């Protein structure tokens, strides 16, 4: 079955599935042309497999596709952005200092 990410808009979260089981999620809030990432969780049973990084890359790729400005309130997403500066352009430049980017 593999790994895939799906937008569960009813719950305002992107979910990552591994082998058919939900392994984690990122909660978000959308408003106009912005998406705020609020909280990320990976089930401990799926820890150490890089699923958090896969999830972060996927949700940021979706934001780019949708031409959304990203507000990384979630510490995990914020930390991932610091390690992958090629994605920091998604965060409005006036917000970089606020999020430590």
TrEMBL record:
Pfam families according to UniProt: Acetyltransf_CG
Name recorded for this polypeptide: N-acetyltransferase
SUPFAM superfamilies, per the entry: Acyl-CoA N-acyltransferases (Nat) (SSF55729)
PANTHER family: BSR4717 PROTEIN, PROTEIN NATD1
Domain N-acetyltransferase span(s) in chain numbering: 6-92
InterPro entries given in the database record: Acyl_CoA_acyltransferase, Gcn5-rel_NAT, GNAT_YJDJ
């Amino acid at each position: 079955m593999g790994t895939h990410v799906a937008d569960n808009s009813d719950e305002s979260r992107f979910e990552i599935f591994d082998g058919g089981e939900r392994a984690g999620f990122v909660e978000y809030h959308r408003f106009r042309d912005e998406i705020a990432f609020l909280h990320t969780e990976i089930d401990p049973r799926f820890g150490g497999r890089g699923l958090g990084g896969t999830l972060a890359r996927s949700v940021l790729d979706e934001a780019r596709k949708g031409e959304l400005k990203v507000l990384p309130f979630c510490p995990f997403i914020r930390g991932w952005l610091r390690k992958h500066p090629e994605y920091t352009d998604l965060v409005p430049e006036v917000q970089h200092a606020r999020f430590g980017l």
